[in-house]
Amino acid sequence: MRSIGVCFPILSVVLILRVWRGLNWESRGAWWGIVLLYYAAIMAREGGNAVQLMAFTRRMGIALLPLGLTVFAYGSGVVLLLGGWRVWRKSLFPLTLLLLVNPVPTAFQQLDLPLQFFCARIAQSFASLIGVHPDVNQLHLMFAPAFGMFIAPGCNGIRGAVTMGYLALILGYLYRFSIRNRILSVLGAVALGYVFNLVRLCFLVLFYRVALNLPWLQPHGTGADYLIGGILFLVAATLFSAVLRWWKKAPEAEIGGEKHASWPGSHGNGLKWKGAVVAFLAAMSCVSSLVTFSNLPKDDSTANGSLPDGLFPQQMGKYRLLRSWLEQDWLNQLAYQWTAYSTGEPGHEVDVALWLGRGVHYPIACHISRGDRPTWNSVIVLPSAEGASAMFSLSFYEGPHAAALEATTVCDAGGCNEHVLLPSQVNVAFASMGIGSLLTRPDSRPLPMLIRQQSQDSMEPPDNARRRMLAELKDFISQLNTHAFVRFAESRDR
Q1: Stretch 94-112: mean pLDDT, rounded?
Q2: Among 59, 260, 293, 426, which residue carries the largest CB count within 10 Å?
């Protein structure tokens, strides 16, 4: 679905320029745009993860500061700085499109599986109607022992329905429909998109029926799916656009309203100065990006999990190194470097992980996105080896068969600090690198660190397990050389 969201910034710029032209390029800019631009710059730090604010339930978490809000703030800042409040108000709909760079919130993932099964039943029913009786195993429809189709999440109809809905929303804006007509057109477009997805599945079943008699067609099932889906979506979009065009009663008007004569002082040095500010900010962003790209080759040493000698010694006090392993993300890129230490006693193993991926990573955000809320949370400064100290966020998680205590921090040139706020009265969590790191540019790339201890004793009371693991975790951190992690963070040029 993100492939649709890529189009929204381009479309937003085109529509904003259309509105601005209708206002005769009015330029009564407001310096408040600088505030929004600075907010966007802060939120875009470290891959957009410098600050995390999430609301959550028992089953899922929702980001309250999504990427779309950052892009919206950036676009609004530019429009305010160059055009002013009136241009911003007239451009509110195009700017709102920037909120949709992730078109479907993750909450809609709850609908994936039910819709997949519904589509599988429709495809099976149509196959029976045309005289084919495939073997059905969950979401697999097998027309032959080695020839069948799988109803994947991309086949559940959400993609086409959402795309048609956004098309109706944009056309309703361009045709200046009333609110009522816009709602009706969006609902009709969503229904049409979903119906055409079911039609696509029926045509695909027809293809598989033909391919049973023409074996040379069988390897081309994926291509046939794309071809059928593309043609049907084009037909649906064209048909729907024609219907809206016919439905439109009033002649097309200028989106920005009647052309207005420029106000006194609407052109001149004000626009030049504000344009110069935007150009300067854009140039600084480009320089920062070029510096980041130029430093990419320097990261090859950690791309395969190799770390500096002495970062994880064989022995730290009574804790001995047991093993190390790597963890990859969903793009098969290196995410975590794990190391396990133990005192030799059963159940006294401590796992340490370094996040070597891009940006900052907050483990608590991963837990909350899965619906796991810590039953206890605290932010505390703990002493470490060589007289140092570090600020850790401690979280205790209870499970049906195990419990875990996690200590997380983020190391950079300024030390190891992490700030997590998790009020017990509300289902909201806030995590950040700290005000100092947010408002200034650190001299090094941040190095998130996770220290975890687990208990497999389901009979141990949770409070007793938490107190025991907390004491052992404090003892382990007192042997940990956080100076070495700070130096390693400093060596990772930005």
Answers
A1: 73
A2: 260
